């Protein structure tokens, strides 16, 4: 299975892999609980995939990305 969007593309949005994973996991849990996401045409069928798509589409950002 290929991760889409790719980690390389995601790291152009969030520099740290640790921060990226943490943000995606927290957001995936929110999506799972609320059944709501911020995407118009999602490609992913999984909660983590939806969270990663939101990051790629600049729907989620980190306040202090170092």
Question: Would you write up a description of this structure?
Answer:
- By secondary structure, the chain is mainly alpha-helical.
- It has one domain.
- The chain has three helices and no strands.
- Helix 2 crosses helix 3.
- The N and C termini lie far apart (30 Å).
Element layout with pairings:
Blueprint lengths: L6 H4 L6 H18 L12 H10 L10
Helix pairs in contact: 2-3
Catalytic activity: RNA(n) + a ribonucleoside 5'-triphosphate = RNA(n+1) + diphosphate
Pfam families: RNA_pol_Rpb6 (PF01192)
Function: Promotes RNA polymerase assembly. Latches the N- and C-terminal regions of the beta' subunit thereby facilitating its interaction with the beta and alpha subunits.
Approximate shape: globular
> Averaging pLDDT over every residue, what do you get?
89
Low-confidence stretches: none
User: How far apart, in Å, are the first and last alpha carbons?
Assistant: 30 Å
Share of helix, binned = 40-55%
- The number of domains: 1
How many distinct helices?
A: 3
DSSP strand count: 0
The percent range for strand residues is under 5%
Structural class by secondary-structure content = mainly alpha
Order of helices and strands: HHH
Based on CA atoms alone, the radius of gyration comes out at 11 Å
Largest sheet: none
Enzyme class: transferase
Catalytic activity: RNA(n) + a ribonucleoside 5'-triphosphate = RNA(n+1) + diphosphate
EC number: 2.7.7.6
Organism: Gracilibacillus halophilus YIM-C55.5
């Amino acid at each position: 299975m290929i991760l889409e969007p790719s980690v390389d593309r995601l790291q152009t949005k969030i520099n740290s892999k640790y921060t990226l994973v943490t943000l995606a996991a927290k957001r995936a849990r929110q999506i799972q609980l609320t059944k709501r996401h911020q995407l118009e045409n999602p490609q992913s069928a999984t909660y983590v995939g939806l969270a990663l798509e939101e990051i790629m589409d600049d729907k989620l950002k980190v306040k202090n990305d170092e």
